[in-house]
Write a structure and sequence with these properties.
Number of strands: 27
Strand order of the largest sheet: 5-8-3-2-11-13-12
Helix content: 10-25%
Structural class: alpha+beta
Radius of gyration: 42 Å
Largest sheet: 7 strands, mixed
Strand content: 35-45%
Length: 535
C-alpha cells in the first residue's frame, strides 16, 4: 500500500505541474471573401495563477499564422501562440522523451495496482461468501452449547464486518486509481467528443495569468478554406412588371470546422491583396521582334449585347425590398462591398455549395426584344436597368424565370462604363425571326478585271404574342480596308446606320400577330483574280 500511495502522489503532483489545459473553440462568426474567410471563435478555460499551457482544439485545419489574433482579458498575457495539426506527436508522443516515458511508466504501475486490488477484492468477497454459507447453525442439532454458539456468532459478526470494511476500502482505492489512469491517458491521447466533428488544427498557447479563475477569450484568423460567389434569381411576371431579383451567395467551405449557428458577412474584398501603393521608375524603350499576330476578339455573349437605344425611359417605381432584406446590412467601403447577414446559418465543412439569400429587390426595368438575324434567328427579351450601381451587384450567373417558366441562365456583369445595364432574360419562341437571301435580287457579274456581286436579304419578324412588343433588329453590311475592294450599300429600309461599324438598327413596335419585313442590299466589287472568303 505504501508503494501505491507513493505512485499516486508522484503521478498527481506531476500532472499538476505538467498537464496542459485542453479546450475546444466554438464558431462565433465568419467573414467570407472570394478566396478565403476570416473566422471568429471563442473558447473558455480555467487558468491557474502563473504560467499555463492551453491547447485549443477545433480550429481550422490550415490557417495563416500571420493573421492570428488572441483576445485575452487584461490580467492574462499571451506569451506565445503556435499552430499545429499534430499536437500529440510534436509535444507528447515522443518515445525518446523523458516526460513521455514517465507517463507511460506511471500508467503501467497504476494498471498493475488496479489489477492487484481487484484480485485482493475478489479473494475477500469469496471469503464472505463462505462465511455466509456456514452461518445457519442451531444449538440442539449442532451439539454446541449456548456459550459456544454465542462465541461463534461474535466471531462471525466481527469477521464479517472486517471483511466488508476492507472491501469498501479497496473499492475506494480502485475508484481513485481509475481516475488517475484517465488523467494519465489524457496526456497521451486527446479525446474528442463522439457526437461532434473535430478539425485537425490546434493552437498551443503559453499564457501567464495574474489570478486563477475561469477566462473567456477570442480567436481570430484567416483561412484559405472558404470561398463565395454571387448568384441571382431573376423573376418577371410580364414585360409591364418590375423584375424580382433575389441576391444570393453560393458558399463553399473546407476549413475543417463546421460553422453551426454562425453569423455571416460576405465581402467582395481581398484580404491577401498587396496593400503597397505602386511606385513609378524609369521607363526605357528597346527594340523587339515584330510578330504577325492579330488577337482574337474575346467577349461573353451572355452579356455582350450592345446598348439598345439612347434616351430609353425606365419605369419610375420606388425600390422595394422583401423580408430577407430586413436582415441584411450593406456596407459600401472605399474598395469593396460587404453584406452583413443578421441571421444564423449552418455551413458544414464538406466542400459542397451552400446557398444563402442576402437581399430581394424589385428592379424597375424597361423591357424590349432584341434580335441579330445575321448571327442567329432568335429573339431575346432584354431588361434595361438604369442607375444600377445603387444595387451593389457583383458579377455572377443568374437563373431566369419569366411568366412562371424557367427559361435559362444569364450572366450579370455590372463592371461596365455605360449608364444602362442590359440583362438578357432569355429567348422567346413566340417572336419568330427569319433572314432569307433574295435570289432574284442577288447577282454576280464580271467586269473587265473586276468581279461584282450584289447581296440582298429580307428579314422577317413576327409577333405571335397576345401583347404588343418593342423590338430592336440589328444587321450589318461589310466594310473595306483595302482600296481595291469597293462596297456600296444599296438598300437599308430606313435603318439607323453606323458607318464606322456597318451596323444597321431598326427599332419598331409590333402589335399582336403583326409581321414586319426589312430589306438590306449591298454591292461588293473587287479584283476577279482574288477571293474573299467571308462574304
Amino acid at each position: 500500500m505504501k508503494n501505491l500511495v507513493f505512485i499516486l502522489f508522484i503521478a498527481s503532483s506531476w500532472m499538476l505541474a505538467q498537464k496542459p489545459i485542453f479546450t475546444s473553440a466554438k464558431m462565433k462568426s465568419a467573414t467570407v471573401y472570394f478566396n478565403s474567410a476570416e473566422l471568429n471563435q471563442t473558447a473558455n478555460v480555467n487558468l491557474l495563477k502563473g504560467t499555463n499551457e492551453i491547447v485549443v482544439k477545433n480550429v481550422a485545419d490550415y490557417l495563416d499564422e500571420n493573421t492570428l489574433k488572441i483576445g485575452m482579458p487584461s490580467h492574462v498575457t499571451v506569451l506565445s501562440a503556435q499552430f499545429t495539426q499534430n499536437y500529440i506527436s510534436e509535444y507528447e508522443i515522443d518515445e525518446t522523451s523523458h516526460e513521455t516515458k514517465k507517463v507511460r511508466d506511471s500508467v503501467q504501475l497504476v494498471q498493475k495496482s488496479i489489477l492487484d486490488l481487484q484480485t485482493e477484492k475478489a479473494t475477500l468477497q469469496m471469503t464472505v461468501q463462505l462465511l455466509d454459507k456456514n452461518q445457519q447453525v442451531s444449538g440442539a442439532d449442532s451439539g454446541l452449547k449456548v456459550d459456544e454458539l454465542m462465541k461463534m456468532v461474535d466471531f462471525y459478526k466481527k469477521k464479517r464486518n472486517e471483511l466488508s470494511t476492507e472491501i469498501n476500502g479497496l473499492n475506494e482505492k480502485e475508484v481513485k486509481l481509475n481516475e488517475t489512469l484517465v488523467k494519465l491517458n489524457s496526456r497521451l491521447q486527446i479525446n474528442t467528443s463522439k457526437d461532434e466533428k473535430m478539425s485537425k488544427g490546434k493552437l498551443v498557447l503559453q499564457v501567464m495569468s495574474e489570478t486563477a479563475g475561469n477566462v473567456n477569450f477570442d480567436i481570430n484568423y484567416l483561412s484559405a478554406g472558404a470561398t463565395w460567389k454571387p448568384f441571382y434569381d431573376l423573376r418577371a411576371e410580364s414585360v409591364n412588371a418590375p423584375i424580382n431579383m433575389l441576391y444570393k451567395a453560393q458558399i463553399v467551405q473546407n476549413t475543417g470546422v463546421d460553422w453551426k449557428q454562425v453569423k455571416l458577412t460576405l465581402s467582395s474584398g481581398n484580404p491577401n491583396q498587396n496593400s503597397q501603393a505602386p511606385l513609378l521608375h524609369s521607363w526605357f524603350l528597346t527594340y523587339e521582334e515584330i510578330m504577325n499576330y492579330i488577337p482574337e476578339p474575346s467577349y461573353d455573349r451572355r452579356n455582350s449585347i450592345q446598348s439598345m437605344a439612347s434616351g430609353s425611359v425606365v419605369t419610375k417605381e420606388k425600390l422595394e425590398e422583401s423580408t430577407i432584406s430586413n436582415y441584411t446590412t450593406v456596407i459600401e467601403n472605399q474598395l469593396n462591398v460587404s453584406f452583413e447577414i443578421d441571421l444564423l446559418y449552418d455551413i458544414l465543412s464538406n466542400g459542397k455549395q451552400h446557398s444563402v439569400s442576402m437581399k430581394e429587390i424589385k428592379l424597375p426595368a424597361n423591357f424590349k426584344y432584341y434580335t441579330v438575324p445575321r448571327m442567329e434567328t432568335e429573339a431575346y427579351l432584354l431588361a434595361e436597368l438604369s442607375d444600377y450601381a445603387k444595387y451593389n451587384m457583383l458579377p455572377g450567373e443568374a437563373n431566369i424565370v419569366f411568366e412562371g417558366m424557367y427559361v435559362g441562365k444569364t450572366f450579370i456583369n455590372p463592371n461596365q462604363t455605360v449608364d444602362t445595364l442590359n440583362l438578357s432574360m432569355g429567348r422567346d419562341k413566340r417572336v419568330s425571326v427569319k433572314r432569307e437571301k433574295v435570289m432574284d435580287k442577288s447577282s454576280t457579274k464580271f467586269l473587265s478585271n473586276y468581279k461584282e456581286q450584289v447581296f440582298t436579304y429580307d428579314i422577317t419578324v413576327r409577333n405571335n404574342k397576345k401583347d404588343a412588343i418593342d423590338i430592336i433588329v440589328k444587321d450589318q453590311f461589310p466594310l473595306s480596308t483595302d482600296k481595291e475592294i469597293e462596297i456600296e450599300l444599296l438598300e437599308s429600309s430606313k435603318a439607323k446606320i453606323n458607318k464606322e461599324t456597318g451596323v444597321m438598327t431598326w427599332i419598331v413596335e409590333l402589335k399582336s400577330n403583326e409581321t414586319q419585313k426589312f430589306r438590306i442590299s449591298y454591292r461588293v466589287k473587287y479584283p476577279k483574280d482574288k477571293n474573299i472568303s467571308n462574304l
